[in-house]
Design goal:
By secondary structure, this protein is mainly α. Helix content is 46%, strand content 10%. It contains 8 helices and 3 strands; from the N terminus they run αααααβααβαβ. It has helices at residues 2-9, 11-20, 61-72, 75-88, 113-122, 139-150, 154-162, 174-187, and strands spanning 127-134, 166-172, 189-193. It has a 3-stranded antiparallel beta sheet with strand order 2-1-3, with helices on one face. It is flat and about 80 Å long. 9% of the residues are buried. It comes from Lithospermum erythrorhizon.
Length: 194
């Protein structure tokens, strides 16, 4: 406590308090200069390509000659370079990764993609209902039917119907999809099952 009183009563502290404000004290930083608020931020020049290993020396003449010899080889011989180097340097052979059970999307595996696509078409259980077109006079009826089975508001259903052709509902059973198609036909629209 005595030290704080002594510090507060010193002339150095009181003069700094006037400069910095009542709650701030810069007594341990006499060379402190506040940053100019009007100063522009410093812009640093970054290299066009970031190389984490730093600059590298250019390849030697021997490496350049070797690369030119490899490039001049026919394609059949270039294919043999990788396995020969792997064997000579005793690198382990890369094993293919099993993708069984993974969903590869549209790309899929090259060999098994076509057979799986055929199986999926044969076993299709989920169907989508797509609105193809509608009569201009029956637009309001079609919007009401769309609202009934999509649980959308009036504006959302209207916007959806105006984007024809558009998918109205996805992942339906065949019976439910046929039921919706019949309702839309009754309202004056044309819908299809995909």
């Amino acid at each position: 406590m005595k030290f704080v009183r002594l510090l507060r009563s010193s002339p150095l502290c009181s003069s700094l308090r006037e400069i910095t404000g009542p709650l701030q004290s810069r007594s341990f930083q006499p060379d402190f200069v506040p940053r100019d608020p009007k100063a522009k931020p410093i812009k640093y020049k970054y290299p066009p390509v970031y190389d984490p290993y730093g600059p590298r020396p250019p390849p030697s003449d021997k490496i350049i000659q070797l690369a030119e010899q490899i490039a001049s080889l026919p394609a059949e011989e270039r294919v043999q370079i990788g396995p020969a180097l792997r064997e000579l340097l005793r690198h382990p052979k890369m094993q293919p990764i099993s993708v069984e059970g993974m969903d590869m999307g549209a790309e899929g595996g090259a060999a098994s993609g076509s057979s799986k696509a055929e199986e999926k078409k044969a076993e299709k259980t989920a169907f989508d209902v797509k609105l193809e077109k509608f009569d201009a006079a029956a637009k309001i009826k079609v919007i009401k039917e769309v609202r009934a089975f999509t649980n959308l508001g009036l504006k959302e259903a209207k916007d959806l119907v105006e984007k024809v052709p558009v998918i109205l509902k996805q992942g339906l059973t065949k019976e439910a999809a046929n039921e919706i198609i019949e309702k839309i036909k009754g309202a004056g629209g044309t819908a299809v099952m995909e």
